[in-house]
C-alpha cells in the first residue's frame, strides 16, 4: 500500500530537468536524430515495435531516444501512447506465404523451392569487433543479382510442402474464428492458442529466449528444428466500412519462424511432426525462434503431453511475459513505501522485544 | 466485424469490380508513397478542386492479424498506427484515405486525390503525372531490394572426396 505523500515537487521537477540534460550527453557531440535511430539502430526499433505491440518505426525510434536507449522504457512509452488512440478496426490476416522475401532459410531441407536466401544476417559473421566502424566511411555496396526466378523471393511456406504428405501437422484454419484480444479482455486460463500467440508476440524477448532455451535443455523435451525462418514485407489490408472493399494501408516487415518438433503420436493421431509458431515485427529472428519454441511447449495439454516444466505452464509463462507489467511491478518498489515500512518496522520491534524478554525470563 | 451503418452505406458508391480494382491500386500507391514525394507530385497538379473535410485527418490504430503457423486461423499480431481522412469535393465526389503512419498532411492529399481520380475526365492526366511515377518507383525499389536478396541465395555444390 502507498499513502499519498506531499512534497518533493521541486526535487522531481529538477530531477526531470537533469534527466533531459543527461539524456543529451556531451553537447560537443552531435545530437542523435530520430531518423538516425530508425535507420541505424533498426533492430532496437523493431524490438520496441514488437513488444510495444504497435508497428510504427518513427514512433519506436522516438521512444528509444526519449528512453535513452532503455528498450523496456521505450516499450512502456509506446504502450502508453497507444492507449491515447482510437482503434478503427481489424485488418485482414496478413498472408506471410505471399511475403516479399529478403531472407528465407530452412535448417531442415537444403533444397527448398526458391532456395536458401541468407539476406542481411549476423549468421556466419565472426563476432569480432569491427574497429573500422568506429571511423567514418561508406560500407561496401551490396551485390545485386538480377537473374533470379520469381520463386526465390515469393516462395510458399516450406512446411506446407510436407503437410501435403501428412508428415507435418497443418494448422487448423477457420477464417470465421474471432481470436481473443488481450488488450480488450483480461486473461483467462486455459487460454486458446490464438490468444496465447498475441500474448507471446508482445512478450519479452529475453524471457521467451530463456524459456525456449529451457525446453531445449530438457525442461519439456520438444526436440526442435528450424523448419523455416523468413523475413520480408507483407501488405496490410483493411476494409473501411465506408468503402466495403479491402485497401492496402501499408507494408510491414515481419520475421516468421515455423519450428518443427518431434511428436510420437497418440491413440488418435499417427506419429507426425508438430509445429511451433513465432512472429515478430521487423527483423526479430531470435524473438520469433524463441516464441515458436514456447508456443510449442504451451501446446502440451492439446497434444496429450505431461505438463511438468515451467515452459509448459500457461499461466506461469503468459502472466509473466509482459515486460511492461513486470517492470511496473518490480520498479514500483522504489516508490515511497514509508508508511508500509513503518508498520513492518513497528511489528519487528515488538516481536524482538517479546523474544528478548522471553530470553531474559528464561535466564532468570 | 465491420458492421454496416446507414451512414456508411449512404457514402458508399455502387462500383463496378474493375473500378474497385483500379481504386484499390491507386489507394495502395498513395499509402506507399512518402509524404515528401507525394507533396512534390501534388504541388505539380493543376486546377485543384475545392474540397472540405467529411472527416478531418485522424490518427488511430488498426489491429493487424496474422495466421497461426502462417496459414491457419487468425490471431491478433499487434496494432499499426493508421491515419484516415475523408473529403468531399465541390462537385460532390467523396474521397477517402486509410494509411499506415501518423501523417495527417499525406492523408489529406491522398483523400483529395482519391476523390479526383474518380472523375474519368481527370484520371488519365493524374495517372500520368502522379501515379505512373509512384508505380515505377515502387517497382524499381522492390526490384532493387529483390536483386540484393537474390545475391545472397546459397548455391550448393557437392565436394567429391577420395577415389572409388
TrEMBL record, chain A:
One of its GO terms (biological process) is organic phosphonate metabolic process. InterPro entries: PhnI. Keywords: Lyase. It comes from the Bacteria. GO terms for molecular function: lyase activity. Pfam families: PhnI. This is Carbon-phosphorus lyase complex subunit PhnI. It comes from Pacificispira spongiicola.
UniProtKB/TrEMBL annotation, chain B:
One of its GO terms (biological process) is organic phosphonate metabolic process. InterPro entries: Phosphonate_metab_PhnG (IPR009609). The keyword Lyase applies. The keyword Lyase applies. Keywords: Lyase. GO terms for molecular function: lyase activity. It holds the Pfam family PhnG. NCBIfam families: PhnG_redo (TIGR03293). This is Phosphonate C-P lyase system protein PhnG. It comes from Pacificispira spongiicola. The lineage of its organism: Bacteria, Pseudomonadati, Pseudomonadota, Alphaproteobacteria, Rhodospirillales. The gene is phnG.
